[in-house]
Design goal:
Elements (H helix, E strand, L loop, with lengths): L1 E2 L4 E4 L1 H6 L9 H12 L4 E5 L2 H11 L5 H13 L3 E3 L3 H14 L3 H13 L3 E3 L2 H6 L6 E3 L3 E2 L2
Parallel strand pairs: 1-7, 2-3, 2-5, 3-4, 5-6
Length: about 150
């Protein structure tokens, strides 16, 4: 277990989806607790631009949402006022390096690269990503976080 007291976290889409999908979502409470810490001003959530495309797409692809529900997801994401980082040249260069070094997709690597660039941990519920990043301390498993 890891105490969740960082000033900021880069969260990936696997965490964001848990905020909206209720059916059979493991660790949903941990995802909601992290989001609530952000809402309460106790931490800042940071995402790459890709996040706002990936979360609704994952919900739609899983046939877990209607068009109007996805419109609500987009509105909620906007209301959260997360810090959305552009895909800058330095982050993209680091994304390329991370993707090759750890055999990740660019979609996964951009979260890790952003975390490395900003110096905040990356939180994920993606077990495949965690296996590939084993030994890299910047990537944290959502279910290992403890919120006081």
């Amino acid at each position: 277990m890891i105490a969740a007291y960082h000033a900021g976290y880069v969260v990936d889409a696997s965490v964001g989806v848990k905020w909206f999908v209720r059916d059979r979502e493991e660790d949903r409470e941990a995802a909601l607790a992290l989001r609530q810490r952000h809402i309460d001003g106790n931490t800042h959530l940071i995402v790459p631009e890709l996040f706002v495309l990936e979360v609704p797409n994952a919900i739609k692809a899983g046939r877990k949402g209607t068009e109007s529900e996805l419109a609500d997801v987009l509105a909620t994401l906007g209301d959260l006022e997360m810090h959305i980082e552009r895909h800058t040249a330095p982050v993209l260069r680091k994304t390329n390096a991370v993707a090759w070094a750890y055999k990740l997709t660019w979609y996964d690597a951009v979260y890790v690269a952003l975390a490395e660039t900003l110096g905040f941990p990356c939180v994920t519920a993606d077990e495949a990503l965690l296996r590939k990043m084993k030994g890299h301390s910047i990537v944290l498993r959502l279910k290992d976080l403890v919120f006081a």
